[in-house]
Amino acid sequence: MARRLLGKEVTAALNEKIKENVAALKAKGISPTLGIVRVGEREDDLSYERGATKRCETLGVACEKYLLPADVTQEKLVEVIHQVNQDDKIHGVLIFRPLPKHLDEAAVIQALAPEKDVDGITDGSMVGVFAGTKQGFPPCTPQACMEILDHYGIDCTGKKAVVVGRSLVVGKPAAMMLLKKNATVTVCHTRTVDMPSVVKEADIVIVAAGRAGVVDDRYVSSGQTVIDVGINVNEEGKLCGDVAYDKVEPVVKAITPVPGGVGSVTTSVLVGHVVEAAMRKYSI
Ligand code: NAD
């Protein structure tokens, strides 16, 4: 039976560190604050917002919401972004995406100041991930994967790592982060030929394909650590990952469940970034 890599254990450890840093900031009269920019009322956004707001509350981080109607103009939205950029009380900003189709999402993202980009969406943050510098912040989900590996003492040095998926939000930054940890990294995608044999060779597998159960027992081998980033809803209305858990778990050495794996860690990583943004601002 595989070791279950539980998100809640990682989250608990991260939360302790975050609380210490919040206390250090508050002792200096600084209240770390997340600005949430939401356009419209998409159910996905509302659900993520509830989770993020609750985690902020638990950890002593304030939230300021900027709620705009679904038909907001580009000019108005960019004006709000400029306003939060300039507001010294806001340390990090979360902008829900995708934005409605009439808006130029790329232009909105680039209007955000990289030092407040706690969700890692600006070009500045990407440069930080690719160059290994502390510019902006890495995207929260791939960082959550790295936090899980670190917490459970899974050393990447010299190991073969495979990332399934090449999105800018998860796959590509995850590959760069594994590289920084000295893994030998391969990225698989929809055009990869004979993916099962590529994935089978890996010591560490991160799956972010956005397809329920795409990695099953044909893809895995004993001794592997599998991190499942996927969040899907199956025919029975239940949450499931991109890994066919029931088929893969009996084969591999360690695996994250869905739910209960990467998702909950992601929210604490986000709140941790807000706190770090405030600490960087005041050189604490
Ligand atoms: P995406 O759709 O932007 O990208 C998916 C990538 O996987 C693409 O590069 C595509 O080429 C590749 N892919 C798709 N099908 C494949 C297949 N059959 N074989 C190989 N490669 C394939 O998705 P994303 O934004 O990267 O998200 C991936 C998954 O992670 C989704 O299920 C999403 O819901 C989930 N997600 C979870 C969190 C979290 O906090 N846990 C956060 C973001 C995304």
Bound molecule kinds, no repeats: nicotinamide-adenine-dinucleotide
- Describe the global form: globular
CATH superfamily of the largest domain: NAD(P)-binding Rossmann-like Domain
Instruction: Give unreliable regions as ranges.
Output: none
Q: What profile does the largest beta sheet have?
A: 6 strands, parallel
What's the rounded overall pLDDT mean?
A: 97
Separation of the first and last Cα atoms: 44 Å
Q: What is the CATH third-level topology name of the largest domain?
A: Rossmann fold
Query: Which radius of gyration do the C-alpha atoms yield?
Result: 19 Å
Total strands: 11
Count of folded domains: 2
Structural class: alpha/beta
Relative helix content: 40-55%
Query: Topology as H/E string?
Result: EHEHEHEHHHEHEHEEEEHEH
Major β-sheet strand ordering: 1-11-8-7-5-6
Number of helices: 10
Q: Which architecture of the largest domain does the CATH hierarchy give at level 2?
A: 3-Layer(aba) Sandwich
What fraction of the residues are assigned to beta strands by DSSP?
15-25%
Give the class-level CATH name of the largest domain.
Alpha Beta
